[in-house]
Amino acid sequence: MSLPPLKRVLLKLSGEVLMGGQQFGIDPEFVAELAKEVKAAKETGLEICLVIGGGNIFRGMAGAAKGMDRAQADYMGMLATVMNALAMQNALEQLGVQTRVQSAIEMDKVCEPVIRRRAERHLEKGRVVIFAAGVGAPYFTTDSGAALRAAEMKCDALLKGTSVDGVYDSDPKQNPQATRFDTVTYDRVLADNLKVMDASAVALCRDNKIPIVVFSIREKGNLARVLAGQGVQTIVQDS
Ligand code: UDP
Questions:
Q1: Using one digit for the tens of pLDDT, what is the confidence trace for 10-65?
Q2: Most informative mutation of 19, 56, 74 for ligand 1 (most atoms within 8 A of CB)
Q3: For a 10 Å CB count at each end of the chain, is N or C smaller?
C-alpha cells in the first residue's frame, strides 16, 4: 500500500515536539527548525494545513486528574494550542512563508475564526493555514481537530508528526520486541486499540478515506522523506 498523489495535506504536530529538548513549553529554536521543514514541503508545491497540539503546555486530562473540572481544563488546553499556533506562525513568517491562523475559539485580536471558504482561499493563494483550538469543544483532542479539518478541507492525507516513528503492535518503550507496522488498517488500529490517535479521529479518517501517516518529526528532513515515500513511517488506510 502506498499513498495517493498528494496535492493538499494536513500536518498535525504534537505539542510536545515544540519543546525541542526542554521538558515544557516552547523552544523557539526548535520551532524554527520545524518551520524550515514545513517551508521545504510547501516548496514542493503542496498545499499545507497545520494543526498543532497543546500537550507541551497543558492537557485537560492532566488537569482533571488533579481535581480540576474536565471541561474547564480542556478549555485551558485549547488556549495552549492557540499559543503554539502563534509560535509556529511567527517562525514560518520569519522564513517568508505566508500564513493565517484560524481558531475554533474566536479570538479576533490575534487570529481569524475558522471559516472553511476563507481557508480555501488562503490555500489557493499559497498560504499555510494553521488551525488552532482543535474542534473548539471540550472532551476532544487536537487529533480529532486534525481529522475534522482534514475532512472539511478535503486533504489527501493526514500526516501525524510526532516523537515516535510509526505505529507499533505494542508499546516499544515497554516491550523491546514491539514491531512497527509499515501499513495497518483503520479497523485493526481501532480493534487492537493501537496508540495512534484517538478512536474518534481514526474513525473520522476511515469514514472519509483519509490515509493517516505517522512519522517522527524530530529527525531533520524526515517530513520531506515521508512525502517522497522514502521515510520511516506507518500508513493507516484500508487494505
Ligand atoms: N482540547 C480540547 N478540545 C479540542 C482540542 C484540544 O478540549 O478539540 C484540549 C484537551 O484538553 C487537550 C489539550 O487541549 O488535552 C491539548 O491538545 P492535545 O492533548 O490534543 O495536544 P497534543 O497531545 O497533540 O500535544
A1: 999 999 999 999 999 999 999 999 999 999 999 999 999 999 999 999 999 999 99
A2: 74
A3: C
Q: Whose CA is nearest to atom 21 of ligand 1?
A: 53
Number of H helices, E strands in the chain: 8, 9
- 8-236 folds as Carbamate kinase (3.40.1160)
Cα 87 to Cα 160: distance, rounded to the nearest angstrom: 19
With CA atoms as reference, report the closest residue to 84 among 160, 164, 20, 158.
20
Residue 25's Cβ-count burial label (10 Å; 0-12, 13-18, 19+) is middle
Q: Which triple of cell numbers denotes residue 38? A: 514545513
| Cα-to-centroid distance, 196 and ligand 1 (Å) | 15
Mean pLDDT of 139-164: 97
Question: Which grid cell is 22?
Answer: 526542554
Q: Which residues line ligand 1 (CB under 6 A)?
A: 14-16, 53-55, 59-61, 74, 77-78, 80-81, 134-135, 137-138, 140-145
**What phi, psi does 38 have (nearest 5°)?**
-65, -40
Atom of ligand 1 nearest to the CA of 75: 7
Domain boundaries, the chain: 8-236
Q: Which candidate, 82, 148, 145, 78, places its Cα nearest to that of 112?
A: 82
Asked whether 48 and 128 are in contact (CB, 8 A), the reply is yes
